[in-house]
Amino acid sequence: MLSSISWQQFATYLLLALVVYYAVVVFLFYRNDIKAILNIQTLQPATVVGAAKPLPPHEDPNHFLARSYTDAVQAYFLQAATEELGKEEILPALHRLSKQYSGLQDAALQDVLLALIVDEALTKCNITITKKELQGLWND
How much of the chain, in percent, has pLDDT values that exceed 90? Predict the structure, then answer.
């Protein structure tokens, strides 16, 4: 049976199998980058039950400010998780962070941002923070 296969056929099939294998590996490894390049957006499931839905970017004038704030909050909770900070240290730090984003005092955005903080505290630091504890976060 092996004598009926030539070396050229063997090399061709081997090369084809390697190309397919590496194409699959590259796609699996870089799929998020490929989606970004092709501008395919995936929907993220809501992680907080009852959270207010964010406004689409074209309807919200503070979209970029809110995005910057969410990035800062997520980065802070990553740092708080590695340093194993408690609620007593996290709440004043969130207050100081939120004062830097005073433009986000809009009531429509606050529900979404407070839900994000509650979710990040629970998932990253295993700390339960209520929305009531976060009321007045942007106030002095």
Answer: 14
